[in-house]
Amino acid sequence: MVRATVLLPVRNGGRWLEETIQSLEDQTFKEFELLVIDDGSTDNSIEIIKRSNLQHIRIIPGPQQGLARALALGVNEAKTEIIFRQDSDDISRPSRFQLQYNFLEKNKDHVAVGSNIVLINEYGKKIKVVKKPLTNNAIRLSLTVECPLIHPAVAFRKSAVLAAGNYWSPSSDPFPEDFHLWSRLIKRGEIANIPSILVMYRIHDKSLSQEHAITLFKVALTITEKNINDELSSTKLSKKQINAIKILGNRNEDKGKISLLQAIEILKIHVILKRKVGYRFWQKGISFKFYLRPFYWVLKNPNMNYK
């Protein structure tokens, strides 16, 4: 019986796809359909998938209009309520699907759940562990600074994603479609991250996040600015505080830096946001860099250092 869908968009992903498929075969949770969106592959990607030992596989042609539109098609085509995201160059740990499925079955108020991950290089060597905020309040807070979920480590409810407008992008150009979706999805229910490391996330020069890092960073800034405004919509702010929000989306594109005084004003906004979502400083689940990010912008040009 199929109880979940694994949504896998692929376009010439043959280099690491065998490892990815093996990780799906090794899952302790077996009751899933692998839904492959073939978005114009010209290599052996589809052959690798077809010769796998997975019992339920469905391959449909993608629109070839960017990742967001391929994913939106996949969500619409999924036959189950729970959907796991999977990328063609990442490895899911054997317990991933079972843990995330159980979490969503137990926590009906949650619309999505991610996990911590370990970064690996193109040869599979461990780089570092990446920890993300765990609780819904911590994730709400993080959405005003950065994307708090690792996209290919997320499981979500189809109905909630559709109610939030599904994956979306303005064009086929690179776009942080996951950050954009989580910012809308959190208004439909709670989101969490499981503290376990459930995905080995591969970093390489040809990945979208690396190849188009500067473009994605600039768009992400506009998303964080909107998330701040959404959270503070019913809060009376001073003129300085309003200007601090504007700094996020209107920094000089050439230099990218801000002044120390501007960083302090942004930090004040973050403290207000922390209180707004009912989050205490000493609670676990959010990185300390939430408070340090404005000062990082003082020291370095983030457009050239975004990950």
Total discrete domains: 2
Strand/helix succession: EHEHEHEEHEEHEHHEHHHHH
CATH superfamily membership of the largest domain? Spore Coat Polysaccharide Biosynthesis Protein SpsA, Chain A
Distance between the termini: 39 Å
Number of alpha- plus pi-helical segments: 12
Q: Topology, please?
A:
Blueprint: E1 4-10, H1 14-25, E2 32-38, H2 45-50, E3 57-61, H3 67-77, E4 82-85, E5 91-92, H4 96-106, E6 110-120, E7 126-130, H5 136-142, E8 155-157, H6 158-163, H7 177-185, E9 190-202, H8 208-211, H9 213-231, H10 239-249, H11 260-276, H12 289-299
Parallel strand pairs: 1-2, 1-4, 2-3, 6-9
Antiparallel strand pairs: 4-8, 5-9, 6-7, 6-8
Give a structural overview:
The protein is α/β, with parallel strands linked by helices. It folds into two domains: 4-204, Spore Coat Polysaccharide Biosynthesis Protein SpsA, Chain A (Alpha-Beta Complex), CATH 3.90.550; 213-304, no CATH class. It is 40% helix and 19% strand. Strand 2 (32-38), helix 2 (45-50) and strand 3 form a beta-alpha-beta unit. The chain is globular.
